[in-house]
Amino acid sequence: MPMPAIHMRAETRSVERRAPLTPDDAGRLTRAGIRVTVEKSRSRCFPTNDYAALGCAIADEGSWADSHPDEVVLGLKELPELPTHLRSRHVLFGHAYRGQPGAHALLRRFRSGGGTLLDLESLVDATGRRVVTFGYWAGYVGAALAILRFWDQLAPPLHPTTRRELDASLVRATSAEPRVLVVGALGRAGRGACDAVSRAGIEPTRWDVEQTRSIDREALRSHDVLVHAVGANEAGPPLVGPEDLDRGHSRLRLVADVTCDVGTPYDLLSLHDRTTSWDEPVLSLPRGGEVIAIDNLPSLLPIEASTTFSAALLPHLVRLGRHGLSDPVWRRVRTAFDHACETAGIDTSETTHQGVLP
């Protein structure tokens, strides 16, 4: 039986600094009998030599495209447009199951090449709770950026930093103390957001399911900053609309969209139609107010975010290496992929015997 293998690819997005595996955890995989190959990267927050020192093989950036179909290709964010047909098992955040732009094309690439998308968003336990997530750090960074913006201390372009440096910037240098509302406060992202607000010496208002069943508009509009950390599983009426930032009858001026479901049926903010960026983190809204909607917030704290994520993912990678898709958690991930393809009208019946769609 061949030695199980994981190929950690380099991220192609220029502002992505995170890694799904730290060097220490990659070393733990090799000691568990799983061969780990790590691509060179110009942006990863951990030096490539640190992986080599712990027993990982080193490969050129982009070499994953020639990997063996039985090898697991591990990454975080979107794949490049080529190759057109994906033949391996890929572990990443595919963002392809919630009607996002480009979802159909990505699923078709996997089906056409005979590969499998093992989407990290579908890595859940028996109760349906996700077992690996960057949510806490997304909430922490999103809330911190919102407070800095309120204090007029957010100076783009943004750059990766450490939690210590970010916390130091949250020491209030002004008498202004915003009223901050965190929606989704009991979730991972919400807890991270509340911790950042508290670090700034501000006690946030915390709303979760009970408070959002019927929105108290007057209470919502009495806040200066709203941090949206709700991960909706079904479409619903918007929690916030342009009228809630109307200067004539609302105090609310700034929304930090941590969830970033822009362009999907699950977007609970009817405020903006695009995400923002490290270069331009703040979007001014036509009717007044501003939105911060950066879709890779944890990469601004790449070491802390990667370390937390890698520790949670490690035991599941061990099981994937040893048991493949027969492991119950990974079997659920594979089932979610099949269901998404069927829902999108892309099924195995469309695949030719060569493994390529006509």
How would you state the average pLDDT, rounded?
A: 92
Q: What is the straight-line distance between the termini?
A: 34 Å
- State the domain count: 2
| SSE pattern | EHEHEEEHEHHEHEHHEEEEHH
CATH superfamily of the largest domain: NAD(P)-binding Rossmann-like Domain
The profile of the biggest β sheet is: 6 strands, parallel
- Major β-sheet strand ordering: 3-2-1-4-5-6
Binding site for NAD(+): 129, 187-188, 208, 212, 258, 294-297
Family: Belongs to the AlaDH/PNT family.
Biased composition (Basic and acidic residues): 8-19
GO molecular function, one term: saccharopine dehydrogenase (NAD+, L-lysine-forming) activity
Detailed description of the structure:
- There is one protein chain.
- The chain has helices spanning 23-31, 48-52, 103-113, 135-150, 163-169, 188-199, 209-212, 217-220, 302-323, 328-343; strands spanning 5-8, 35-39, 57-59, 72-74, 89-92, 116-119, 180-183, 205-207, 225-228, 254-257, 282-284, 290-292.
- With 358 residues, it is an alpha/beta fold.
- Mean pLDDT is 92; it is low at 352-358.
- It is built from ten helices and twelve strands.
- Helix 2 links the parallel strand 2 and strand 3.
- It starts with a strand and ends in a 15-residue tail after the last helix.
- The protein folds into two domains: 5-129 and 302-350, NAD(P)-binding Rossmann-like Domain (Rossmann fold); 135-295, 3-Layer(aba) Sandwich (Rossmann fold).
- The strands form two sheets. The protein has a six-stranded parallel sheet, sandwiched between helices. It has a six-stranded mixed sheet with strand order 8-7-9-10-12-11.
- InterPro entries: AASS (IPR051168), AlaDH/PNT_N (IPR007886), Lys1 (IPR027281), NAD(P)-bd_dom_sf (IPR036291).
- The active site is at residues 77, 95.
- It comes from Halostreptopolyspora alba.
- Residues 7-141 form the Alanine dehydrogenase/pyridine nucleotide transhydrogenase N-terminal domain.
- Residues 1-26 are annotated as: Disordered.
